[in-house]
Design goal:
The complex is a heterodimer. Chain A contains no helices and 11 strands. Chain A is an all-beta fold. The N and C termini of chain A lie far apart (about 35 Å). By secondary structure, chain B is mostly beta strands. In chain B, the strands form 2 sheets. In chain B, strands 2, 4, 5, 6, 9, 10 and 11 form a 7-stranded mixed sheet that branches. Chain B has a 4-stranded antiparallel sheet with strand order 1-3-8-7, with no helix packed on it. Chain B is globular and about 40 Å long. The interface between A and B is medium-sized, with 26 and 27 residues.
Chain lengths: ~110, ~110
């Protein structure tokens, strides 16, 4: 079942903060975050696993609330390069990428 | 440099024709995946393969076929049975572990005329 991302779109000024949310109706094993710039391939940002393990880029932070079946991605002091579409992918069984279901994406526009 | 190469980048096809999209990786990854991306829909899994000569259907496999004869190659054929094939197709690979970090190719945009 496809996770729900919110907001669908957000416009920020450079330097402002953003939070992107991802929620699922089923228990989660892990949540994966990717960013895609227009016409390009998605790029890995972070993986958060049940039990607290995380793997990702140092400049990106995220949270994973297992009880609420939610994850949030925090973009602080945004830069122009942060613009793009952010996708969360949810895994319910521990199958890694095999079982990933992606949300519809959150469009982030950073203005100077 | 290691990575995933997809070709062609753009492809036009007449209705009723099959077309094959190429995906090659030199990352020595075990697992490979094909996703379809439509505007506003996110990424949807078509097929994936964990090892050579074995593959599984994803969420939207109807009208598509794949093969995995070599570890580094995972071509996707869009058959004439696919009712709405115009889309952006992304190939990805991963080490196949439980963390499942995906490495994507640049994509192939297929337009059916």
């Amino acid at each position: 079942q496809q996770p729900v991302q919110s907001p669908q779109a957000v416009i920020l000024r450079e330097g402002e903060d953003a939070v992107i949310n991802c929620s699922s109706s089923k228990a989660l094993y892990s949540v994966h975050w990717y960013r895609q710039k227009h016409g390009e391939a998605p790029v890995f940002l972070m993986i958060l696993l049940k039990g607290g393990e995380q793997k990702g880029h140092d400049k990106i932070s995220a949270s994973f609330n297992e009880k609420k079946q939610q994850s949030s991605l925090y973009l602080t002091a945004s830069q122009l390069s942060y613009s793009g579409t952010y996708f969360c992918g949810t895994d319910h069984s521990g199958g890694g990428a095999d079982g990933l279901t992606f949300g519809k994406g959150t469009h982030l526009i950073i203005q100077p | 440099d290691g990575g995933i190469t997809q070709s062609p980048k753009y492809l036009f096809r007449k209705e009723g024709q099959n077309v094959t999209l190429s995906c090659e990786q030199n990352l020595n990854h075990d697992a490979m995946y094909w996703y379809r991306q439509d505007p506003g829909q996110g990424l949807r899994l078509i097929y994936y393969s964990q090892i050579v000569n074995d593959f599984q259907k994803g969420d939207i496999a109807e009208g598509y076929s794949v093969s995995r004869e070599k570890k580094e190659s995972f071509p996707l054929t869009v058959t004439s049975a696919q009712k709405n094939p115009t889309a952006f197709y992304l190939c990805a690979s991963s080490m196949g572990d439980r963390t499942g970090e995906l490495f994507f190719g640049e994509g192939s945009r297929l337009t059916v005329l």
